[in-house]
Amino acid sequence: MAIPTLRTLAQLKQQAEALGLDVKPTKNTSSGTKTHSKDDFIYALRDFYLSQMGDYATETLKMMIQLEQPMLCQQFKVLKPEEQKAALDTDNNEWFAEEKLDGNRMILMFINGQFDAFSRNISVENFLPVSYGEKILLDGVDLSKVGHDFIIDCEVISSNPNICTKLTTSGVPLETLTQLQATSAIMALNKEDSLRIQKEDPLVFKSFDVLYLDGEWLLDKPLIDRLRLHRPLIKKIKETGLLIDVPRATRKNKRAFFEEIIDKGGEGAVLKNLRSTYNNRGNRQRDGWVKVKRSMALMAKRNGLDDSIDCFVTGYQLASEDKGWDGLIGSLEFSTFLKKKNGKVVQHVIANVSNIPLEMRKRMTVTDPEGNPVLADEWYGRVASCDGASISARKLCLNHPRLICWRTDKSMDQCVMEEEFLLSQVGTTTVD
To answer: What gap in Å lies between CA 268 and CA 260, rounded to an integer?
Structure first.
């Protein structure tokens, strides 16, 4: 499993050497020798800091380390047409559709009388999972009444649908434009402020899986078997007073279920294979969980508009070292001409796209007179079609953008969009 971190290999090595750690290399090279990977240093550093905690290392923290990380979703577009049909368009088979929520992923634990909660966040200092247990309001909740030790997988959202506006007016230093950002803001506050907000607007948990029950890890059991244990467990947890439930789901009319969610401004659906085990290894499976989401292209089609956004190259960023493309172009900045309501036309950055094939990265990267890698001049102004998951409210640009194709048949002056259209797409966009 790879632990995500923005630290470079050189920084990790320096930190390990400063602590006197003897880190063994495990990564195979083409010559058959071993070299260090980032994970080699991360695991060594994590184990060192865990050992330094001694008795302060809680049992729940150790359990979270055993879990490694929550299961990830594959993207719908990766599936072959016949796989897409089976997952979304075939009723009552081994696939079901579950509503995707715009919340924060959270692992909830109750082990030997101790409650804890972990997100996917890893400390940038000691690489240990970050606990949020003390920031979850449990007034009047007695989880010992459940009668089980458990670990469950959840999404957490605020019970107040207007929490974004409320937090902004309360002075939270974030542009909390979505439920996800709002719950992130609540979790980022200090313990006292977080609990204070929850007293008036408590958090709600939507649980969709059970990973551990009464001393037994369930990761290798098929999802259908885990769900048979999960449903009665959630019922018992709910009876303790914790605001918890399960997401809406169906095995029939899955596409109609997905379309209904989108029509109401929802995030989309997660398609789950009932035969799948729980993958905690950090990679994505096409036969496990698959997310099907809002897409700019589909929403544009629904509105009788173009099926993607035409835009032109205006800048670039170099690839980061950890991506393996050091010294090459990492992403391209695309812009379009934005026509405002008053008729004025301005150049507007619409996307920063990174899904660029390696050979193309090599072709577009040249060196300047000082020997620095830069974008070759001939790439500026090239027109492409781009798509994305939605339009961001603050910058009016594509969220999770991707390059669809290059448009040799179009010029920069044809890349014009109405600002009014972009504004209409904020938070209302469909399928990925």
So the answer is: 9
Q: How far is CA 179 from CA 103, 203, 260, in A?
A: 6, 11, 19
Q: How many CA atoms lie within 13 A of 183 on its CB side?
A: 22
Q: Cα–Cα–Cα angle for 256, 428, 430, nearest 5°? A: 45
Distance CA 96, CA 270 (A): 8
Contact of 23 with 16, CB cutoff 8 Å: yes
Inform me whether the pLDDT recorded for 182 exceeds 80. Answer: no
Q: What's the Cα-to-Cα distance from 310 to each of 52, 159, 293, 349, rounded to whole Å?
A: 54, 39, 21, 12
pLDDT confidence band for 267 (50 / 70 / 90)? confident
Q: What is the pLDDT of residues 360-373, one digit of tens each?
A: 899 999 998 888 99
What 3-state DSSP class applies to 362?
Answer: helix
Helices and strands of the chain, counted as H and E runs: 12, 24
Give the 3-state DSSP-derived string for 312-360, with helices as H, strands as E and coil as C.
EEEEEEECCHHHCCCCCEEEEEEEEEEECCCCCEEEEEEEEECCCCHHH
Using an 8 Å Cβ cutoff, are 101 and 247 in contact? yes
- Check if the beta carbon of residue 163 is closer than 8 Å to that of residue 176: yes
Beta bridge partners of 250: 97
Q: What would the two tokens of residue 261 be? A: 């969610």
Greatest mean pLDDT among 170-179, 301-310, 350-359 lies in 350-359
Distance CA 420, CA 417 (A): 9
Give the domains, in start order, of the chain with CATH numbers. 9-56 (no CATH), 59-293 (3.30.470.30), 300-424 (2.40.50.140)
Q: How far apart are CA 43 and CA 33, in angstroms?
A: 20
HEC string for 363-413: HHEEECCCCCEEECHHHCCCEEEEECCEECCCCCCEECCEEEEECCCCCHH
